[in-house]
Write a structure and sequence with these properties.
Elements lengths: L9 H21 L7 E5 L5 H10 L4 E6 L2 H7 L9 E5 L15 E7 L8 H11 E20 L3 H16 L10 H8 L2 E13 L5 H14 L1 H6 L5 H14 L6 E12 L4
Parallel strand pairs: 1-2, 1-4, 2-3, 4-5
Antiparallel strand pairs: 5-7, 6-7
Helix pairs in contact: 1-2, 1-7, 4-6, 5-9
The structure holds S-adenosylmethionine.
The site of S-adenosylmethionine has 21 residues, from helix 1.
């Protein structure tokens, strides 16, 4: 049984919405969306990125977001207004609820920040591969949590970051799935695979820097109970690391460098 480490509190939904604001324009720029395209967004969360893809494909296109959480779908409903081409449905990425639509019905299947939360990512990618037509695209975007650098270095924070990564592993999930995206696409049957990074970062000179710091502090805070219950770190070290990170952000050179992994493959014509 998969466990979603971030949960569905209103604070987490606020964090995820902010993450979308910080990242979506970069993610959109890597996609080749055109009017009329039919797009599937798996694990669509609050639906913000699905809505932005819907704006790109226009009223002659279609974007369907599939999401397992009712709480996320409730929030996603706000984006439906004025976008007849957009819809969401509740469902599981392991068994996409597409019986009425049929197989090979989409031009592009996309997922972002889902594969790191499932125990069998290959099964999810297999479902996405089935959903796209021959010649269509499968796009995977996910984290490799070692692609993260702070400057000036902050050893007290490194300790909690590694405990955070271990919290994925004790839940049976993979904090390094990003580096495997090309392999996942190839094993599913995709060819002509491209890979890239999406930059997620900022520095103390930028007005959005506090948003990045807050985002990172919040995901770690959410993992506190898993980290302490599984004795991945003493509570005191956890507190010290978070405190050090909060102080670090005021350093005039404070810089966050993080790279999100991105890969796109084509389903062969025959
Ligand atoms: C980190 S959020 C990312 C949401 C969105 N893709 C984005 O980038 O903003 C991951 C989402 O995947 C959903 N999820 C997790 N496991 C799932 C599954 N097996 N099937 C469908 N959705 C799932 C979670 O409920 C959550 O909303």
């Amino acid at each position: 049984m998969d466990q979603y480490i971030h949960g569905y509190t209103s604070e987490e939904q606020r964090r995820l919405a902010k993450l979308n604001e910080l990242l979506n324009f970069r993610c959109l720029s890597l996609l080749t969306l055109a009017p009329g395209m039919r797009v599937l967004d798996v694990g669509s969360g609050l639906g913000m990125f699905s809505a932005q893809m819907a704006d790109q494909v226009g009223p002659t296109g279609r974007v369907l977001g599939v999401e397992k959480s009712e709480a996320q779908l409730e929030r996603a409903a706000v984006w439906l207004e004025g976008r007849p081409q957009l819809s969401y449905r509740q469902g599981d990425a392991y068994h996409l609820p597409l019986k009425d639509i049929g197989v090979a019905a989409f031009d592009l299947a996309h997922t972002r920040f889902l594969l790191e939360h499932v125990q069998r990512p290959a099964r999810v990618v297999g479902q996405m591969f089935q959903a796209v037509r021959p010649g269509g695209q499968v796009v995977l975007v996910d984290d490799d949590h070692l692609r993260f650098t702070l400057y000036p270095e902050l050893p007290a924070f490194d300790v909690i970051w590694f405990a955070y990564l271990k919290s994925y592993e004790v839940m049976g999930n993979d904090p390094y799935v990003g580096r495997k995206l090309v392999a996942l696409l190839k094993n599913a049957g995709c060819r002509s695979i491209r890979n890239d990074f999406i930059f997620f970062g900022s520095n103390a000179d930028q007005s959005d820097f506090a948003d990045y710091v807050r985002n990172i502090a919040e995901i770690i805070e959410q993992a506190r109970s898993v980290i302490t219950e599984h004795r991945l770190l003493a509570e005191s070290e956890f507190e010290e690391g978070l405190r050090a990170f909060q102080q670090w952000q005021h350093h005039p050179h404070a810089t966050i460098w993080y790279q999100v992994c991105w890969a796109e493959g084509t389903k062969p014509e025959s």
